[in-house]
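<backbone_tokenisation>
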Amino acid sequence: MKAFAVFYNICIPVIAAAARIAAVVSPRLRTWFRVRTALFDELERSVVTAGSRGPTIWFHAASAGEFEQARPLIGSLKTSVPDCRIVVTFQSPSGYDLRRNYPDADLVVYHPADTLRNARRFVRLVQPDAVVVMRYDFWFNHLACAERSGAALILAGAVLRNGSIYQKPVVQTVYRRIFSLFDRIYTVSDTDKERFEESFGLSGVVTAGDPRCDQVMQRKNSASISGNLKTACANRTVLVAGSTWKADEDILLPALNGWRGEITVIIVPHETDTGNIRRLERELQERNLSYSLFSQGIDDAFSPGNILVVDTRGMLAELYSIASIAYVGGGFGINVHNTLEPAVYAIPVLFGPNHQNSREAGELIEAGGAMEITSSNDLRQRLRSLVRDPSERRRTGDRAGRFVTERLGATAMICSGILEEVDSR
């Protein structure tokens, strides 16, 4: 381990220097450095105002998606140990911007650059009793410093796909060192557990499931939707197309021709900025598809035969509660978005072919609760079958709902393990 640490700390300053040079021409890298400028000043202030406290649990999530796995864990810990202090770090600006004011967290900051100096300073200021890394994004110096300080290290929501880069010869050696730092590793499936054990010679690996299943169930149980919209869509077959990009809309809009009056369509674009909404409006107009904007209000003038474009953020998970069928965007781009959010409502889930990085999407297809769409004509045929055959729609939806309910319980298991590790120190 010592030789690895020396090698790692020779490489990190070189990489950091190269990144600063590249930042001259890379807006993303410039942002990465800029948002971390006053990071330690904020940490210093938080230490001064922290006062007396219970255990400090530090959660690290690469971005917003990984934080969704952390949310039920944080909520459960706050319920079990109300005076525990929750620190959350993000790698990406998107995750930080979305959750910087998360009410159950005592402090939300960016993860520092992984230099040895930064790691020692961060751990000294935060003084974590446990570090919980969600899914991936491992920074050796911070993990090693936390371990030396006496903190428990826990990896939760872990997955390891066959042929992953972690299993490549040289990379595997690096990650064997990193994974050996963790006291407990909680995987999503038994297959993940076996791969971690076989690839890295680990013990203490436990199958817990995906905390996101608990999270989407919690959101379902607390979901509320506009009364006017709920009334307008009552007794209608409703298609909610969520987190759509232009590539999704290029497939979706042609498939909607000829459906006027038969279904209510709600489109929730992934980006709701003015420019994107105006683009979508133009494309709807070009196809002679009638539409309304959510921001204009749902009143007596709203026709459920029109397409409703939701130009407001933060509503998607609740909108699935009034859906009969869901289309999840991203599958004609880099990767499909969250398929568990609609599945929890026991409705059929449709998405494009790019879902390799979302295991649950593939497993939903295998379970019979989801369908992969390859073209506009394919989507049109799938919709025709689901809309005009309620029994098929119900059977497919029931399979999607069971997929989620059969995977509940990860939160309780992981939180119990975190508290056991904290109490044992």
User: Anything to note?
Assistant: The first strand starts at residue 56 and ends at 61. The domain at 20-209+409-423 is CATH 3.40.50.11720 (Rossmann fold). The two ends are 23 Å apart (CA to CA).
